[in-house]
Structures are given as structure tokens and as C-alpha cells.
Amino acid sequence: MTRKQKKNLIRILLAGVLLVAASLIPREVFLQPTWMIQFVDPGQSSALPPQWVQTGGTIYSFPRLFLFLIPYALVGWDVLWKALRNIKNGQVFDENFLMSVATVGAMAMGEYAEGVAVMLFYQVGELFQSVAVHRSRRSIAQLMDIRPDSANVERAGEICEVDPEQVAVGETIVVKPGERVPLDGKVLEGSSALNTAALTGESLPRDVGPGEEVISGCVNLSGVLRVEVTKPYGQSTVARILDLVENSSEKKAKAEHFITRFARYYTPIVVFAALALAVVPSLVDGQWGVWVPRALNFLVVSCPCALVISIPLSFFGGLGGASRRGVLVKGSNYLEALACASVVVFDKTGTLTRGEFSVTQVKTLAGTEEELLETAALAEQFSTHPIARAILMAWGKEPSRDRVEDVEELAGHGVQAKVDGQEVLAGSRKLLEEHKISLPDAEEELPGTAVHVAAEGKYLGYLLVADQVKEGAAQALRDLKKAGVRQCVMLTGDSESAAQAVAGVLDIDQVYARLLPGDKVEKVEQLLGQKQPGEKLVFVGDGINDAPVLTRADIGVAMGALGSDAAIEAADVVLMDDDLNKLSVAVAIARKTMTIVKENTIFAIGVKFLVLGLSAAGFANMWAAVFADVGVSVLAILNASRMIGGK
Amino acid sequence: MKKTYKMEDLDCANCAAKMEAAIRKIDGVTGASVSFMAQKVTIEGDDERFEEILKEAVKVCKKVEPDCRILIK
């Protein structure tokens, strides 16, 4: 609690005690004829002083009023003061004014205790609101506490501690274990494990060694690193992420706009309704004492704060909760849209697949799989082609140079080499056919690139090299479907067979292969045209070369964005690492946020209208009205804070 | 030009909404957003008139909630 909040709490407690004390003193004590004025309704005779009983008229007992005015002034002076000041500024229908009129009105009707209590509860609600909002603000600030305080930079042979903003590109910084990496850079010396949890929500540390890039915001866990700075602080990952998170509440959701618009009309309408309710029926039947209190209830209920505060709070919590899990959403509007995601379009390479080749299948006609792999690996050992690398990786042993001679790389086709004295060919079907080697007829089109291997003119078999589907991708897609996504679409520039191979493993509904980058935009536009109203299309890419598609989709999601500036720039939602699961997490968070937003909206508006109706009919007293105002506020805030506290 | 300023003692969400509406009405402002949760105001407006716009924005905010201040660096 801040000092101001503590002061208010003391004020409220003190006023509460005084109020209880004042209420405990029996009325009769004050009913001295000289101390009061009695207004008697027409037709009733004055019952005082002999009976000392109230008969329906309003009794003003000045000492009693004075007793109640002490707690009232203590707890409500600032509300009255603000009301006056705001009227001067032309702000008539603000809540201070409404509360002032309602409580002063209650006092005027002789309901001293109610008048004070309403003010008291109003202040309790205000205090609660301010504490809740303060808390959630702080917890989200802590969440994003990735800003480095200082950098240890090497200058003239000495290490000095400076502000990260004062470190120039090219300088060398030292990061000790336990410290946060202050700037983006490249490791010159040392190796360590980095904890990226603050950025990605991922608890598995990332290993780095010389020559590798490190990202600001990570925490160095084990070894000392000497890092060459590659970007100034303003462009570093940390600065960008903070900027993005801090500005995310600027783009407001439709629900937020709806609520503020609603509040703008709701309050004046209710106030005028109150005025009408106080005057019109009273003029007809003359029972001012019945209608004016009912109208005062209206004023208490007319405060829009419960609504106006709980909706942004829910969104704020949603955005904060998402960023803690490594999902940066650039605005409440995107969170809102994400909740309606029904068509998800994936780019294949780098999104559904790792973007790295590996051997997915080994088919032999002669010898064992291991032998085939060994022969191919030895022949390919000098090649830098990704396919050759994948074969070597699959074999997993250190190839010996001595067993191979006369290596000839035939660009685009494969290699020819002497392995253990045998003439080996490894490459495309065409290469082998050129060397008059008979191959079995091609089966169906293979999902990936086949490397055929022959030795001494004899066909041995083939290795299938393909881009690998990401671990967890299948589960992630199933989760998305469970979360209400209707259709998963995959776009790729690769061949139909490679695309089908991926689609077969995953639960993809539609596949579009052989697309040029421009075609992808066209396909997305076509899909946008097909979706039903109210549905949103999400495009998920790795942020490389797909900026136009990211911007064209309703929601552009870039993944693996750590270190990719272009992706952070172009996308609406940024997944900090390349875990597809984060997408379903994001959708789940968005849905939960929207549920809370809807609950709060319906609940708050519903209770308010209910109490308005009951008040007009005379079934609700001022306590119900206070509940409809402050109680609803508190409940709505508690509901919204589930978004912050929970997972 | 688009600039964001921090706000201090912005205590009521409804006031934030009112301020936003009031800033939008200032001549030369093309966009405005007051975030109650982030305690920030973002103003987008004509470059050459920006200083005037800012002054006016401070004034209208003061009108809505006198205790609240826009921190101009």
C-alpha cells in the first residue's frame, strides 16, 4: 500500500468506529424538544414532544446530526471537495458529485446512518480499487523486470561499471554468473548457460560458447562471458521488448471502447431518470418522502466505475500473463481478436518444421542400414551442403579422411568418391542413371529429398532427407483445435510431397504447396474472404520474408523472435521462442481474458439495472444501491485479478 | 508526431476515458490514448503544432482530474 492508501485506510477505520458509536446511542437520547424541528406530513398531527416518537414526518435532531457529521466529514470531505471543484471545471456527472448528492440527500431525509455508511463504503471500494490496481501494476512491472541496471565494460584494460546506454557498439563487456546480459552481442570468450525464462517463459537454459550470439535480458548462470556488443542499448532485445510491453495497453480493444462509450451515456441518463423519479410521481401523489430516497438510490447506482475499471484491468492482466509465458501481444485489440481465432495459417518451414534437414528414412536393398549410412557419410564428408551435413549427423561418428579418396562433388547432383577402395556414388536418381546403374522404379513421390547410393555399380538403397516436424507441433495443433480453432492451413514453397509429408503427421486441414512469397499473400487474402463474420484469421510465420503476410492477416504471429528485429516489428503477436505450444497458450489466455471481460460486463450492467428497477419499485434500499456500486466494483476487480494471479 | 508521456496520480478509470475523449477533440490531434493501467498518455498530432497541443492536453486533463499530472520531460 502506498502512503496515501494507508492514510485512507486509517480514515475509513476511524470513521467506521465513530459511525458505529453514533448508531449505538439510542435516538431517544436526542429527542429533546428544544433540539429539533419536526416536519410533519399533511394530515398528521404533531406527535411531539409528549410521545417522542417519529410518526412518518422527518425529524431533524441537530445534536444527532452533528454526531453523524463527524464521521461523515472525516471520510467524505475530499469527495465533497472534489465534487465542488469539478463542477467549477464543468465536470458535472462525475462520481464525486453523485456520491455527494446521494449522501447529502440521505442526510436531508433524516437517514443519517445511511448517509455516512454509503460514503464510508464508497471510500472502502475506492481504496480497494486503488490497492488492486496498484498491485496488478506492480506484479506486471516485476514480470517485465528485465531491464539491466548496469554493464561491465572493458575500457583501457580496466573493467568499469556504466549505464548500458553508454556502451558503444564494438566495445567488450564482461558478464559474470548471476548477472543479466545487459546488451546484445557475440561471445568472444568463455562459455556458459543462459536462463532465458524472463524473455521466453522457457525454463530450459540455453548453452552459449565463443562466436555465438547472446541476447540481452537473459541471466548468465554458470561461466564468465566476454561479449562484443553488436547493438546499442536502444536497439537491443531488452529495450525493444520493454517498449512493446509498455505500449501494449495503448491499442484498446473493442470491449474497452464499448464500456467507455456506455459509461458516457449511462451516467447522465440515470441521473436524469433519478431527477424524474424524484419529481414526477411526487407531484402526482405528494409523497416526496417515498420518491426522493428512491431517486437517491439511482444516483448511487449511476457511478460507472465498476465497469470502467474492471475491463482494462482484465486486459492488462491478460497481456501481463501472456508476456510472462513468453508471448508478447502488442495490444488489447489483438488479445480480443486472438480469442476469436478460427482459421490458423502456418508457414511450413521454420514454423511447423525446424528448418533443418535430417535423415528421416533409410531404405536398403543390400547390406544394413548402418552400412548404407556409413558409406554415404564417408562419401559426403567434405561437402558443406545441408543434406550432406544431415547425413553425417545421422551417422553420428567422426568420419575418417583416410578411407576416402578422389572425391568429386557434382553440384546439384551429389558426390562421387572412392570409399575403402570402392567406387561410390551418392546423389540424385539422375546421377546414378547417368552412370548406368539400374534403380528400382520410383515408388510414389517421396516426402523429401532422396539420396541414392551405389557402390561398384550396384545400387545399395537410398536415404531420405527431409525437414523435420517440430517436436510438440502435433500436440500444439491438437490444443489449438481443442481451443476452438476450426481450420489449420499450411502454406509452403516446397513440393507437394514434402508438404503432404508434414501435413500427414500433423492435423492440417488444407495444404497449399509450391507457393512463391507473393502467392502466400494471395492465398491468405482468399482465406480471409472465405471465413465467416466474427472469425479471425491468424498467420503464423518465423518473421523472415513473410512480413507482408503477417500484416495482411487479422493477427500476424511471429515465432522464434528472440533476436529477430524484423519479426518483432511486423507481427501483432510475438512468440519469443520457436515453441508452437505458445500459440495455443496465447489463444487460451485470450479466451480466458475475454470470458472475464464478458462476465464482468454482464454482471456489472445486470446488477446495476436490477437494482435500478428494484429501487424504482421501492424494493431496494440504499444498502442494495451501495452494493450495486462498490460491491460490484470489488467483485469485478477480484474477477479480473484472476488473470494476473493465475497461470 | 506521436509521443507518450507518463502520468501521475491518475486515480480513476472513468477519468482516463474522459481525458482521452477530451484530448481527441483538441484541434490538430489525430489520435490519443490514455491508459489507466499503464498510467500513460499517447498523443498523436501535427508536428508544427505539437507544443500547443501538448499544452492544451495538459489543460484539459487538469480539468477532468486536477490531481493528475502529465510528466513532461
Written overview of the protein:
- The complex is a heterodimer of chains A (647) and B (73).
- Helices cover 50% and strands 19% of the residues of chain A.
- Chain A has 647 residues and is an alpha+beta fold.
- Chain A has 5 domains: 3-142, no CATH class; 151-246, Distorted Sandwich (Calcium-transporting ATPase, cytoplasmic transduction domain A), CATH 2.70.150.10; 251-314 and 595-645, no CATH class; 327-353 and 470-590, Rossmann fold, CATH 3.40.50.1000; 354-469, Calcium-transporting ATPase, cytoplasmic domain N (3-Layer(aba) Sandwich), CATH 3.40.1110.
- In chain A, helix 2 (62-88) crosses helix 4 (112-143), helix 3 packs antiparallel against helix 4 and helix 20 runs antiparallel to helix 21 (622-645).
- The longest helix of chain A has 37 residues, at 581-617.
- Residues 47-57 of chain A have low confidence and may be disordered.
- With 73 residues, chain B is α+β, with helices and mostly antiparallel strands.
- In chain B, 37% of the residues lie in helices and 32% in strands.
- Chain B has helices at residues 13-24, 50-64, and strands spanning 2-8, 29-35, 40-45, 69-71.
- In chain B, strand 2 and strand 3 (40-45) form a beta hairpin.
- In chain B, helix 1 (13-24) packs antiparallel against helix 2 (50-64).
- Chain B is globular, with a radius of gyration of 11 Å.
- The chains are: A alpha+beta (647), B alpha+beta (73).
- The A-B interface holds A 82, 85-86, 89-91, 94-95, 130, 133, 136-137, 246-247, 249-252, 260, 263-264, 304-305, 308-309, 312-313, 315-316 and B 4, 11-15, 17-18, 20-21, 33, 35-40, 42, 63-64, 66.
SSE inventory with pairings:
The complex is a heterodimer of chains A (647) and B (73).
Chain A: H1 3-24, E1 36-39, E2 58-61, H2 62-88, H3 95-108, H4 112-143, E3 151-155, E4 158-162, E5 172-175, E6 185-189, E7 192-195, H5 197-200, E8 206-208, E9 213-214, E10 219-220, E11 225-229, H6 237-246, H7 254-285, H8 288-301, H9 305-324, E12 327-329, H10 332-339, E13 341-347, H11 348-352, E14 353-364, H12 369-380, H13 386-395, E15 404-410, E16 414-419, E17 422-427, H14 429-434, E18 449-455, E19 458-469, H15 473-482, E20 487-491, H16 496-505, E21 510-512, H17 517-530, E22 536-541, H18 547-552, E23 555-558, H19 565-570, E24 573-575, H20 581-617, H21 622-645
Parallel strand pairs in A: 13-20, 13-22, 20-21, 22-23, 23-24
Antiparallel strand pairs in A: 1-2, 3-4, 3-5, 5-11, 6-9, 6-11, 7-8, 7-10, 12-24, 14-19, 15-16, 16-17, 17-18, 18-19
Helix pairs in contact in A: 1-2, 1-4, 2-3, 2-4, 3-4, 3-8, 4-9, 4-21, 7-8, 7-9, 8-20, 8-21, 9-20, 9-21, 10-20, 12-13, 15-20, 20-21
Chain B: E1 2-8, H1 13-24, E2 29-35, E3 40-45, H2 50-64, E4 69-71
Antiparallel strand pairs in B: 1-3, 1-4, 2-3
